[in-house]
C-alpha cells in the first residue's frame, strides 16, 4: 500500500487533517512519533490560521505521507515520493515550508504575497521581499514599537484586497548556530491582528547599513509589477491575482527606498506611515 | 474593413487589468507580465486593424489632447511587436532613422510621454516563496547563508531536507 495515497482508510496508518484558508490537507504516517511531530509542524507553520481535525473528510485532495525507510525520513505527496533526508530537523523544516506552499497555492479566494505585514492605526503596512531582505527583522521591530503583527513570511490578501492575518511565529535570525528562532508577537511585547484591514502602504525596502531613507513613490502599475515576483499564485490564477493586487494598490501609498538598521528605523517608519496614510485618507 | 497592413492588438491568451494611467497585461502563454504606460496603452488600444499608423497617431492625439507624430506610434508598435502584443508582427518604419535618434527627436518635440512597456516573467510558485537565499545546492553551506536550515537546496532557494 502506498503511503500518502489510498491509505487514509487503512488501520495501518494514522492520520490527521488540517484546514487552512479553505484548503484541506491530510497528513498520515505509519509512525505515531512522526505523526506527532508533523502535527507540531502544522502548529508552527500555521499557528491560528489552521484548524486540526481527527476526521479526514470525504475527499482529501492534498495528501502528505511521512515514513522512515532505511534510516531516512521520507516524504510522499499524493502517493509519490518527493523528498527524503537524514536530518529530522531539516526534514520537518522542509515539510513546514511545503505545507505552507501547498495552502498558499490552492487557497482559491486568497492571494499570498511573500511579505511581512503589520497593522498600525487600522491600516496595513506591507513589506514585500525574499528571505534575506531583512523583512522579518523589520517586522519584529515594528511589533516591538507598537504595530500589530499580521505576517512574517506570507501576507494574505482576500478577494477585496484586504490583508488577513497569517500570524505564525516570526522566524528571526539569532546569529547562532541553531538557525532562526521562532518568536511570537507576544514574546516581542506586541499582539497579533485578527481582522481583515486595508493596505495603507507598501514599502519595497532592503537593509543597507549605509542607506539613507530616500522614498520614491511608485505608480499603481509599477507597484503591481514589483509585487508580481512576490506573488505565489500569479501563474495559477493571474486574473484573480491582478484584480486583488489592483484593489490593494488602489488604497495604498507605494514606496521604495533602502533603509538602515531596523531598530532605529522602525519608529521612524511608523511615524512616517501614520502621517502619510492619514494624509492619503483625507485626500 | 480591416487592412492587413494595419496593426491589430492581440487579445487572445491575455489577461488585461486597467489601473489608473497604465494597463497591465498578463500573457498566459509565456507567463510574462507587461506594464504599458498611458501612451503605449493608448496606441495598443487603438490598434483595431482599421486604423493606419497615421490614423492611430491622430486618434491618440485626440485622446491625449496633444499632437502625436507617426514616429511616436511606430516606437510604441516596435515595443508591442517585441512583446508579442500584436496579432501579427508589423514591419516598423522609422524612415531609416535609428530608434535612439527617434527617441531623442520625440523627446524634444512631443508633449506626450514616450511609450514604455516594462515586462517581467512571473515566477513559478516555489520561486516566489523562496525560503532561503541559496541559489545552488552548495550555496546553503556558505557562511552568508547560515540561516538556511538545509544543507542541500534546489536552485530556486527552496530548502530541501
Attribute tags:
heterodimer; A: 283 residues; alpha+beta; Double Stranded RNA Binding Domain; Rossmann fold; 2 domains; eight-stranded mixed beta sheet; six-stranded mixed beta sheet; 16 strands; 29% strand; globular; B: 161 residues; two-stranded antiparallel ribbon; elongated
- SSE order of chain B, one letter for each helix or strand: EEEHHHHEHEE
Tell me the number of strands of chain B: 6
Adjacency order of strands in the biggest sheet of chain B? 1-2-3-4
- Main sheet overview of chain A: 8 strands, mixed
- Whole-number count of domains of chain B: 2
Structural class determined from secondary elements of chain A:
alpha+beta
Number of domains of chain A: 2
Strand content of chain B: 15-25%
CATH architectural label of the largest domain in chain A: 3-Layer(aba) Sandwich
Oligomer: heterodimer
Q: What level of helicity do the residues of chain B show?
A: 25-40%
Write down the secondary-structure element order of chain A: EEHEEEEHEEHEEEEEEEHHEH
Largest pleated sheet of chain B: 4 strands, antiparallel
Write down the Rg of chain B. Answer: 21 Å
- For the record, what CATH class of the largest domain in chain A applies? Alpha Beta
Specify which chain pair forms the largest interface. Answer: A-B, 49 and 39 residues
- Total strand segments of chain A: 16
Rounded to the nearest angstrom, the radius of gyration of chain A is 20 Å
Query: How many angstroms does the end-to-end distance of chain B come to?
Result: 62 Å
Amino acid at each position: 500500500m502506498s503511503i500518502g495515497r489510498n491509505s487514509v482508510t487503512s488501520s495501518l496508518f494514522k492520520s490527521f487533517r488540517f484546514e487552512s484558508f479553505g484548503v484541506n490537507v491530510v497528513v498520515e504516517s505509519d509512525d505515531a512519533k512522526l505523526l506527532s511531530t508533523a502535527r507540531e509542524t502544522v502548529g508552527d507553520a500555521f499557528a491560528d490560521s489552521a484548524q486540526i481535525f481527527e476526521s479526514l473528510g470525504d475527499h482529501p485532495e492534498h495528501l502528505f505521507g511521512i515514513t522512515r525507510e532505511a534510516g531516512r525520513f521520507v516524504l510522499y505527496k499524493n502517493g509519490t515520493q518527493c523528498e527524503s533526508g537524514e536530518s529530522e530537523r531539516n526534514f520537518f523544516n522542509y515539510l513546514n515550508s511545503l505545507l505552507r506552499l501547498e495552502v498558499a497555492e490552492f487557497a482559491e479566494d486568497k492571494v499570498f504575497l511573500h511579505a511581512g505585514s503589520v497593522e498600525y492605526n487600522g491600516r496595513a503596512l506591507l513589506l514585500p521581499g525574499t528571505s534575506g531582505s531583512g523583512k522579518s527583522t523589520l517586522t519584529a521591530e515594528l511589533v516591538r514599537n507598537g504595530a500589530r503583527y499580521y505576517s512574517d513570511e506570507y501576507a494574505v490578501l482576500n478577494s477585496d484586497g484586504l490583508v488577513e492575518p497569517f500570524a505564525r511565529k516570526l522566524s528571526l535570525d539569532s546569529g547562532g548556530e541553531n538557525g532562526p528562532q521562532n518568536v511570537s508577537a507576544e514574546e516581542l511585547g506586541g499582539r497579533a491582528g485578527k481582522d481583515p484591514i486595508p493596505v495603507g502602504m507598501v514599502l519595497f525596502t532592503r537593509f543597507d547599513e549605509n542607506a539613507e531613507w530616500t522614498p520614491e513613490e511608485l505608480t499603481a502599475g509599477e507597484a503591481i509589477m514589483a509585487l508580481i515576483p512576490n506573488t505565489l499564485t500569479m501563474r495559477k490564477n493571474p486574473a484573480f491575482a491582478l484584480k486583488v493586487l489592483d484593489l490593494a494598490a488602489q488604497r495604498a501609498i507605494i514606496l521604495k527606498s533602502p533603509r538602515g538598521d531596523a531598530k532605529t528605523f522602525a519608529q521612524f517608519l511608523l511615524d512616517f506611515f501614520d502621517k502619510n496614510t492619514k494624509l492619503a485618507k483625507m485626500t | 474593413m480591416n487592412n492587413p497592413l494595419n496593426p491589430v492588438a492581440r487579445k487572445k491568451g491575455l489577461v488585461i487589468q486597467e489601473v489608473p494611467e497604465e494597463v497591465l497585461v498578463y500573457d498566459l502563454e509565456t507567463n510574462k507580465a507587461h506594464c504599458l504606460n498611458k501612451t503605449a496603452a493608448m496606441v495598443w488600444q487603438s490598434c483595431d486593424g482599421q486604423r493606419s499608423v497615421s490614423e492611430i497617431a491622430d486618434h491618440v492625439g485626440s485622446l491625449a489632447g496633444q499632437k502625436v507624430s507617426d514616429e511616436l506610434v511606430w516606437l510604441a508598435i516596435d515595443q508591442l511587436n517585441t512583446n508579442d502584443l500584436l496579432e501579427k508582427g508589423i514591419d516598423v518604419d522609422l524612415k531609416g532613422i535609428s530608434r535612439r535618434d527617434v527617441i531623442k527627436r520625440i523627446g524634444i518635440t512631443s508633449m506626450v510621454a514616450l511609450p514604455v512597456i516594462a515586462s517581467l516573467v512571473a515566477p513559478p510558485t516555489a520561486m516566489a516563496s523562496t525560503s532561503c537565499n541559496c541559489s545552488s545546492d552548495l550555496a546553503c553551506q556558505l557562511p552568508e547563508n547560515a540561516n538556511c536550515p538545509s544543507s542541500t537546496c534546489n536552485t530556486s532557494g527552496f530548502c530541501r531536507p
